[in-house]
Amino acid sequence: MKRIIECVPNFSEGRDPKVIDAIVEAIASVEGVKVLNVDPGEATNRTVVTFVGEPEAVTEAAFRGASKAQELIDMRKHHGAHPRSGATDVLPLIPIAGISLEECADLARKLAERMYKELGIPCYCYEAAAFKPERKNLAVCRAGEYEALPEKFADPQKRPDFCGEWDERAERSGASNVGARNFLVAVNFNLNTTSTRRAMAVAFDVREKGRKAREGGSLTGKLLKDENGEQIWIPGTLKGCKAIGWYIDEYGIAQVSMNITDIDATPLHVAYEEVTRAAAARGLRVTGAEIVGLVPKRVLLEAGRFYLERQQRSLGIDESEIMKIAVKSMSLDDLKPFDPKEKVIEYLMQDEAQEAVQHRLVRLSAEGLARETASESPAPGGGSISAYMGSLAAALATMVANLSAHKRGWDERWKEFSDVAEQGQALMRELLDLVDEDTAAFNRVMDVFGMPKGTPEEKAARDAAMHEATLYAASVPLRTMEASLKALPLALAMAQKGNPASASDAGVAALAALAAVRGAHLNVRINLSGLSDHAAAAPLLERAAAIENEAAALEAEVLAAVDQHI
Question: pLDDT tens digit string along 55-71?
Answer without folding.
Answer: 999 999 999 999 999 99
